[in-house]
Amino acid sequence: xxxxxxxxxxxxxxxxxxxxxxxxxxxxxxxxxxxxxxxxxxxxxxxxxxxxxxxxxxxxxxxxxxxxxxxxxxxxxxxxxxxxxxxxxxxxxxxxxxxxxxxxxxxxxxxxxxxxxxxxxxxxxxxxxxxxxxxxxxxxxxxxxxxxxxxxxxxxxxxxxxxxxxxxxxxxxxxxxxxxx
Length: 181
Ligand code: IMP
Ligand code: MG
Known about the structure:
The chain is α/β, with parallel strands linked by helices. Helices cover 20% and strands 31% of the residues. The strands form two sheets. The protein has a six-stranded mixed beta sheet, sandwiched between helices. Strands 1-9-8 form a three-stranded antiparallel beta sheet.
């Protein structure tokens, strides 16, 4: 018995469902960027598993990079992005960039990352997020590819953590409130 499973109140998306959705997004990206070589920027750490699976569902040439941004939030509330902890290495000037992020909650982190990437003069920027919490947005934010929508619950697994734990759960589930209250 996996001990972590006991901390989860409900499984929202299992491995099968996630992979099926990634195949759809992967073929959409492959056709939208046909003839181009986009640069995918995975946002660490939450987006690392999503990025790893997504790129294998894409069948055109892509380059990959990663970026890490610190957020001042603790526990289950985020207060937006603070500063760059790991910068991009690829020169994205004139390139088509796709930001690959785990979840849009308030939207503050993503807005910060988008603004930062635009400063490097890319030709285009689109965003691919695994999860969206539409009712939690604190600003109006655009993203082009979305895996799934979730309610205003705290979710973990498949890269998403609570206190650095649960990233290795193969599914996405709701963390029991007693785990953080
Ligand atoms: P935002 O800036 O409020 O949109 O928060 C974005 C970041 O907070 C995400 O990239 C996640 O790292 C983290 N986050 C927000 N909601 C959740 C959640 O339900 N589970 C795990 N991490 C979350
Ligand atoms: Mg994140």
